[in-house]
Design goal:
The chain has 417 residues and is of the alpha/beta class. The chain has one domain. The chain is 29% helix and 18% strand. The chain contains 14 helices and 16 strands.
């Protein structure tokens, strides 16, 4: 049974959200709400996939924030997909201070002790052809996220008993998967959602480097185009966060040299300064009005002390004309960021005018009877056309008209309890 609704209503106690924001900044909680809500009821019948801890990771220092082993969920491919691999990097925010990272150790985003032993594979990870037409029979992997820096840090804080080993986790996981057959891949796709979408950009060329030239290798970033944008107070909320992540977790040494040669490390953690230099074909899937960026980067409570943006932040339908105009400016900034990127024949683009965040892992937004579309093309089909080069260059670049023109969106709406 597919879904008959367009909007998704998420009921939250807003004061609790705001307090959590203030105390833990951008911990995994806010991202989890936005990544997880709206899962289809039909998805309950999907395949459950067990957690595999990487046994050799500890010896390489490739560990979660609390020192536990990292892990992934692997569902084997078959038939025509037996030698094809899809790697999905889990999202879930970042930690930018000792306090935030210590808190994160008590969650599944910082310790494998708290990770689900089984995960439901839906959307791009589904094993059903009718739900995932192009990748359903591939080897599909979800790499769990437990470092807090988009799989890119490499340092430690002994006093706080924190291990910032995202880069080592990435390398250890890839080595383990290569030994399990990925080395023979004829086709490979690195994808990720949110902080994992940023990670798929950061590691895209590294991923291609694992394979021979005969392997078709591409990357997909879903809701990973975090912009270096001013917030509603004129401040730089997200830049400040990223500066903390980069400095605390030793990210600088793993960032692309081509970027560091002309920009500071914090700037090189922003996708807009990386995407044009990536050699591997990359597909950017993003909502033009990304829910997380509105909630936590553009109009967070810290930048809105008088609550002028409160109702708009919870529900786009309650935004004033002036606020919508501000959000249109954010969309324009996003389109300017991808302008050069979109000129490359090898790259793909799907930017819809929705208030959403992460659309590839949810069945209702990836591929269903009433999925979001641009010019009648669902996200799954746009990604598939691009990966398999089934259409011309124009078919791989889909950009929506501005809000409120798109009636197919599954918008995230938050309501105070």
């Amino acid at each position: 049974m597919k879904f008959l609704w367009v909007g998704i209503v998420v009921v939250l106690v807003f004061t609790k959200w705001a307090n959590g924001f203030a105390e833990h900044s951008f911990n995994e909680t806010e991202l989890s709400w936005l990544e997880g809500y709206g899962e289809s009821k039909a998805a309950v019948t999907g395949v459950m996939v067990g957690l595999t801890l990487i046994p050799g990771a500890g010896a390489k220092g490739a560990v979660c924030l609390d020192g536990t082993l990292p892990g992934y969920h692997l569902h084997r491919g078959y038939g025509s997909g037996a030698n094809s691999w899809l790697i999905q990097l889990e999202g879930g925010g970042w930690c930018n201070t000792i306090r935030n990272c210590v808190y994160r150790k008590t969650t599944r985003r910082g310790s494998s002790k708290f990770m689900e032993k089984q995960l439901l594979f839906t959307g791009i990870l589904s094993n059903k052809a009718e739900e995932n037409p192009d990748f359903f029979n591939w080897n599909r992997v979800k790499l769990r996220y437990c470092d807090g820096a988009s799989f890119s840090g490499d340092s430690e804080n002994k006093a706080a008993q924190l291990q910032f080993r995202g880069q080592r986790i990435w390398l250890s996981a890839m080595e383990d998967l290569m030994s399990k057959g990925m080395r023979y891949a004829k086709q490979a796709l690195l994808s990720g959602c949110s902080a994992g979408g940023l990670a798929s950009i950061l590691h895209c060329d590294e991923f291609q480097g694992l394979f021979s030239r005969s392997t078709k290798v591409k990357c997909l970033s879903d809701a990973g185009l975090f912009l270096d944008a001013a917030d509603v107070s004129g401040g730089r909320t997200l830049r400040n966060l990223y500066g903390g992540v980069v400095g605390l977790q030793g990210v600088q040494q793993t960032l692309p040299r081509i970027c560091l040669n002309h920009l500071d490390p914090t700037s090189c953690f922003f996708p807009q300064n990386l995407i044009n230099s990536i050699k591997t074909p990359l597909f950017i899937l993003n909502a033009a009005y990304d829910s997380w960026q509105i909630q936590s980067s553009l109009a967070p409570p810290s930048a809105d002390p008088h609550g002028y943006w409160k109702n708009c932040r919870l529900n786009h339908a309650k935004c004033s004309p002036e606020q919508i105009q501000y959000l249109q400016g954010f969309r324009n900034q996003m389109l300017n960021v991808v302008k050069q990127f979109a000129q490359s024949d090898k790259n793909g683009l799907f930017i819809n005018s929705c208030f959403a965040h992460c659309q590839s892992e949810r069945q209702d937004t990836w591929f269903a009877d009433n999925s979001p579309v641009i010019r009648n093309k669902a996200i799954a089909l746009a990604v598939g056309d691009w990966y398999f080069e089934r259409t011309g260059v124009k078919g791989a670049k889909e950009v929506d008209c501005p809000y409120p023109c798109d009636n197919s969106c599954h918008n995230l709406v938050f309501q105070e309890a």
